Amino acid sequence: MGLLREPLFRFFLIGAGFFVLYAALEHLRGQPVTLSGAGLVVLLEEYEAVTGRPPDAQQRQVIIQDYYQREVLFREGLRERIVERDGRLREAVIERMQQRVSGQLKEPSERDLVGYYTDHMDRYYREPLITVDHRYLATDPGAGEALLASLDAGEEAAFDPAPGGERLSRYGESMLRAQFGSEILEALKDAPADRWVGPLESRRGWHFFRVRERRPAEPLPFVRAREQVRADYQADVLAQRIDAYVDARRERYPLELAPELMGDDGTTLGSDAAPRAP
Question: Would the pLDDT of 243 be above 60?
Answer without folding.
Answer: yes
